[in-house]
Specification:
alpha/beta, Rossmann fold, five-stranded parallel sheet, two-stranded antiparallel sheet, 20% strand
Length: 195
């Protein structure tokens, strides 16, 4: 049974194209509602990583004080969400050539040595292998894959680093130029997905 972690990163709500596309992907994957965990990064109260959090991350779990456990409680729950689900569906608009700040904060909270990756003699090794990720990407005018696209390469690098290398991008670029055409192309790609 597939379990999905559905994450939206857009600061927009009702008019967000990336939210509509990520919801369409979840619907296409055809899983029961109780098997979908939803995370809205724009309302998750994510904060910039602090020195106290970093210190807690690098303190062995058995040695953490109650204050240290509390300061990384949200991070722990976000990591557990990633572990508990087989498939991640991410809706992400391009803001200024890259991911929204909320998604970068999320990445900082889930990239945890000993939790989502480890260092080995051969280099870093991701611990979340065997998962699949679908990313619905929207841009106002920057073509995906162009020199100005920093978003898709950074997401490939980040998720690969934590072990998730099976990644499919559904692109709706140029929504400010021709919204209908961009969405039509993206929805057509979603329809081709195998549930």
């Amino acid at each position: 049974m597939t379990k999905i972690l559905h994450i939206d990163a857009s600061s927009m709500t009702i008019s967000s194209s990336s939210r509509k596309l990520s919801a369409a992907i979840v619907k296409k994957l055809n899983v029961a509602a109780e098997d979908v965990t939803y995370r809205d990064l724009s309302t998750s109260n994510l904060q910039v990583i602090t020195e106290a959090q970093i210190g807690s991350f690098f303190t062995p779990a058995a040695d953490r004080s109650e204050d240290q456990k509390q300061v990384i409680k949200l991070s722990d729950s976000l990591v557990e969400e990633l572990r508990a689900n087989d498939t991640i569906v991410l809706g992400v608009p391009m803001y200024n050539f890259n991911v929204p700040a909320s998604l970068k904060l999320y990445q900082d909270l889930v990239a945890r040595v000993g939790e989502t990756f480890i260092y080995t003699e051969e280099g870093p090794k991701g611990l979340l292998e065997g998962k699949k990720i679908y990313v619905a990407v929207t841009t106002g005018g920057v073509p995906i894959g162009s020199p100005a696209d920093s978003l898709t390469p950074s997401l490939k690098t980040f998720f690969g680093f934590i072990g998730i290398t099976d990644i499919t991008f559904i692109n709706a670029d140029g929504t400010s130029v021709d919204l209908d055409k961009a969405l039509e192309t993206a929805y057509a790609e979603i329809e081709k997905l195998v549930a």
